[in-house]
Design goal:
Helix content: 25-40%
Number of helices: 13
Radius of gyration: 22 Å
Shape: globular
Strand content: 5-15%
Structural class: alpha/beta
Distance between the termini: 60 Å
Bound molecules: nicotinamide-adenine-dinucleotide, uridine-diphosphate-N-acetylglucosamine
Length: 433
């Protein structure tokens, strides 16, 4: 019989891709979500395959009620998979509702995505982040325990590594140097699950540390579709329609004054940008490299030879295709079956790309020019962060398959499909340091 998996926050970006992978792998996902960052369905019926719910590998549970009850992402997942999705609107902090849910279904494992994830907001509203992320997870774990469900896959983040002491980041890298409540909540939850597995040997947990998930399913029907102004680089880039200047400045303006793309010259620390170079950067489009003696004040950046080409690097991240990430969760579910205890894996590609490389890749994928300005480094940003993903390959048999082109390709089409209204135009730019 097909296994039933509880997916918390499964209407969200990563969760919805995992629900699709679960359906396609023959599992029966039961999704809960409170619509904090998911869109309610339009009521349009999903076009299900006539044989949905029948035949081998098909769900044993009854099809979900009317599609109007479904989040839009899951309505689309149903269409792609030709399988029904079981969904219930439920807040993970609601213990009574969780108990009721666990009485209704027999779960073999839980995939736990639900939570709040905006770093900047977490600094403004720490209690809300701790309530939802920590209390919600505690209630979930307690309910699991009460109902004899002791297998969990948890969405953690590379943010637990803090400022990297070495690169690439492997799972042995020290953790806990988080500078914001969101990151701390991930770290605390990891610790909590570790302690639980240590105290009660029948628990199995796989803690997945995501690097930077981007992209969308190849159908273009699901993908990242955040409510309001996006918090991360790529969804913001995707939502900017020409001829408007690149919205990264908008994001920065909201959270950090007028900052936009980060300057991380030298790779670590926050260097001062020489005045003349700064003016040039502000001058308009800039290709990321400035050459020649005349442009730079010697020694300003500690460069030994002023004739060197100066490439002012922007932040480097390990961007990973969300479908690769979702497949990593299926591998993690299989790992739980080995009674693995508590395991931790990086889910990344092992390759770092700079913001400018990402902008170029998006230009190539979308066929349009993306205008941008270089502004000061974003507060709290690490210069470079990329994974050593070899442990996941060795122990989960999982490896990211998609490259940058594929990651960027799905993004613009989703932006057109999923966003009902265009983003408000960015106000005029002003420089800041
Ligand atoms: P998302 O916001 O798209 O999905 C989270 C879902 O959880 C949303 O649908 C939201 O409505 C739901 N939710 C929030 N609070 C809830 C509550 N109290 N009860 C029930 N549902 C609730 O985010 P995502 O990008 O899909 O991320 C999923 C998980 O992965 C999160 O835990 C996030 O912290 C983690 N993560 C994400 C990234 C990333 O870059 N997207 C990186 C590292 C880790
Ligand atoms: C952010 C979070 C991190 C979280 C991760 C995934 C911060 C400080 N960190 O990581 O905790 O786990 O998202 O949700 O928010 N950039 C610009 N201009 C912008 C916005 C971003 O140049 O307007 C750059 C950043 O400097 C960074 C890169 O784009 O180098 C990626 O940024 P982002 O998508 O926000 O992810 P992270 O900072 O890696």
């Amino acid at each position: 019989m097909a296994e039933t998996i509880l997916v918390t926050g499964g209407a969200g970006y990563i969760g919805s891709h995992c629900v699709l992978e679960l359906l396609q792998a023959g599992y029966v996902p039961v999704v809960i979500d409170n619509f904090h960052n998911a869109i309610r369905g339009t009521g349009a019926p999903a076009r299900l395959h006539p044989r949905a719910g029948l035949g081998s590998g098909a769900p044993h549970s009854p099809p979900s009620p009317g599609s109007e009850a479904l989040p839009e992402s899951l309505r689309r997942v149903q269409e792609i998979a030709h399988r029904p999705v079981i969904f219930q609107e439920l807040d993970i902090t609601d213990e009574a509702a969780l108990q009721e849910l666990f009485r209704k279904h027999r779960f073999s494992a839980v995939m736990h995505f639900a939570g709040l994830k905006a770093v900047g907001e977490s600094v403004q509203k720490p209690l809300e982040y701790y309530r939802v992320n920590l209390t919600g997870t505690i209630r979930l774990l307690e309910t699991m325990k009460a109902h004899g469900v002791r297998n969990i896959v948890f969405s953690s983040s590379a943010t637990v590594y803090g400022d990297p002491k070495y690169l690439p980041l492997d799972e042995k890298h020290p953790v806990g140097g988080c500078t914001n409540p969101y990151g701390k909540s991930k770290f605390f939850i990891e610790e909590m699950i570790w302690d639980l597995c240590r105290a009660e040997r029948d628990w199995n947990a796989v803690l997945l540390r995501y690097f930077n998930p981007i992209g969308a399913h190849e159908s273009g029907m699901i993908g990242e579709d955040p409510q309001g102004i996006p918090n991360n680089l790529m969804p913001y880039v995707a939502q900017v329609e020409p001829p408007q200047p690149l919205g990264v400045t908008g994001r920065g303006r909201r959270r950090w004054g007028s900052t936009g793309l980060s300057l991380c010259a030298g790779g670590s620390g926050t260097p001062r940008v020489p005045e003349r170079l700064w003016e040039r950067l502000q001058d308009g489009r800039w290709n990321g490299c400035v050459t020649g003696r005349g442009d730079l004040g010697r020694g300003n950046l500690g460069f030994p030879d002023p004739a060197l080409t100066l490439c002012v690097p922007t932040g480097v991240r390990d961007y990973i295709h969300v479908v690769d990430l979702a497949k990593g969760h299926i591998a993690a579910l299989k790992k739980l079956k080995e009674n693995c205890g508590c395991k931790i894996y990086n889910l990344g590609t092992g390759t770092g790309y700079s913001v400018l490389q990402m902008v170029r890749a998006m230009e190539k994928a979308s066929g349009r020019e993306i205008k941008y300005r270089i502004t000061a480094r974003r507060e709290g940003d690490v210069a470079s962060c990329y994974a050593d993903p070899t442990l996941a390959e060795r122990e989960l048999g999982w490896k990211a398959a998609f490259g940058l082109d594929k990651m960027c390709k799905g993004i613009p089409s989703l932006a057109r499909r999923a966003l009902p209204a265009p983003c408000p135009p960015s106000p005029p730019l002003s420089s800041s340091r």
